[in-house]
Inverse folding.
């Protein structure tokens, strides 16, 4: 009997290629293996539709004075105002201290993360107006995964530390990509998490298994028909 046609080899190779995404998705979704990078050492928060004279936006997190991470005052926010001739950044420190309204703010147990958490190394107001919250030890002021029960708000603050407005409790969801996305818009605060919920990858696994099953079934039928055709031709030639 002649060797199988090259088409069988090609189809088989293509079919095997289906296994690679399946193996990866099984590892990620079903075996608990994670390829997510460690939490970042900072978070950025952008805002729009803020009250007039808003200088920056602070995160309000649940923390009381008995918390081991609570401190009376960390350091005031800094605003990047330009660069020196040698390229070094120039900063302006806002007029905020331990007696400012934002420092003494307690909104039903929620206080300033940047001013009262010992893991915070301050707020940097970037050139584009967004905030960069820097921390020590990869500390996250937000839950590691979306949690609608988390009590987090944002407060609009002027350059002297006066509170101009406070958002509702944050809404959180997965947004894809690889970065955390925090956005304040008027009375809304949205926390966007990198990646996708687990059900997405599990659904993808099911779909790929279905595709692979179809591909394998088609390949098996193709091989059987090819072999049957070759056998039939050999018999016909033997009869002749």
């Amino acid at each position: 009997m002649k060797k199988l046609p090259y088409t069988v080899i090609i189809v088989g190779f293509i079919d095997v290629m289906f296994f690679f995404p399946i193996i990866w998705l099984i590892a990620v979704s079903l075996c608990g293996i994670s390829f997510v990078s460690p939490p970042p050492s900072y978070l950025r928060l952008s805002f729009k539709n803020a009250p007039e004279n808003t200088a920056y936006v602070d995160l309000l997190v649940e923390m009381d004075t008995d918390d081991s991470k609570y401190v009376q005052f960390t350091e005031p926010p800094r605003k990047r105002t330009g660069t020196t001739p040698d390229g070094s950044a120039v900063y302006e420190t806002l007029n905020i201290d331990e007696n400012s309204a934002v420092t003494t703010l307690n909104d039903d147990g929620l206080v300033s993360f940047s001013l009262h958490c010992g893991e915070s190394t301050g707020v940097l107001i970037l050139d584009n107006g967004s905030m960069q919250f820097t921390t020590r030890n990869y500390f996250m002021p937000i839950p590691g995964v979306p949690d609608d029960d988390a009590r987090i708000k944002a407060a609009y603050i002027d350059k002297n530390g006066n509170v101009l407005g406070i958002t509702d409790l944050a809404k959180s969801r997965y947004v894809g990509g690889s970065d955390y996305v925090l956005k304040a818009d008027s009375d809304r605060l949205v926390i966007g998490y990198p990646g996708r919920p687990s059900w997405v990858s599990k659904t993808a696994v099911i779909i790929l298994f279905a595709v692979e099953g179809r591909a394998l079934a088609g390949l098996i039928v193709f091989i059987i028909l090819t072999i049957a055709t070759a056998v039939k031709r050999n018999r016909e030639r033997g009869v002749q």
Notes: The radius of gyration is 29 Å. The chain is about 30% helix and 25% strand. The first strand starts at residue 42 and ends at 48.
